[in-house]
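Page 37, top half.
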Amino acid sequence: MDYEFNWLVLWDYRELLLKGLLITIKLSIISIVLSTIIGFIFGTMRTAKNKLLRMVSSVYVEFFLNTPLIIQLFFWYFALPMVLPEFIRGWLWSHNYEFISGVIGLTIYTSTFIAEVIRAGIQSIDDGQWEAGQSSGLTRFQCLIFIIIPQAIQVIIPPLCNQYLNLIKNSSLAMTVAVAELTYQAQAIEALTFRGFEAFTAATLIYIVLTLLVSLLMNRFEKWINRSRISIST
């Protein structure tokens, strides 16, 4: 093997890796928050009694769920600005639209999976819980918030954690729309130094650490929820 490793190159270009890491974290956090909110809305709509709400949410979920993420990113970045008025397009390009389009793409794509997680969690609760809540005078929305969701959390948390991990890993695709996140910076280091092995090894390890931290936090949250449920029941 003729390749000579030079790990010191990572120290020389540490600022690029740090910049990429911070952008990846920012991109992931914003997208996680927004996709959770949107996913919760459309997930609950899919369990609604109203046929129109179910149809709208089903169209949203099925359309974006079955479209590749990279196509969605290209659409938000390249296609959408072309149909907007020129002054809006100019404003977007002057306000870091690369990052905005990355957030939009990741948020909408991930929200469809979260919507399915929420829907499955709600439907896992016995119908008797709905009937008991409504017979005590609660509206269907109040039953959802105060009875169904608290019980469904145990079912929801593990797959929800998986979607957060997928989002963090999928954030690497944002480099295709010029978001200078971690993978983008690793590629920049490779282009400057021809040290692709070192650059992408570092990026890989950083992604592993990020996802492990998220898994740890979600596991702790799940344990806290379980302890809270036990203390309430006793």
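Page 37, bottom half:
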Amino acid sequence: MAAQRDVLHTAVAVVAGATTIAFRVPNGRAEQIEALIRDLVLGNHPAARK
């Protein structure tokens, strides 16, 4: 994951294999969203558990 910040938003890019998905989120929420995505990928989030 990578993040790039501007005045109002942070561009968060998720890289998986040869695919990159980029989206913009409010600056105050970027760290929370990065942590959520990381937890989902690693299986640490309740939604990722079976």
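Margin note: The mean pLDDT is 83.
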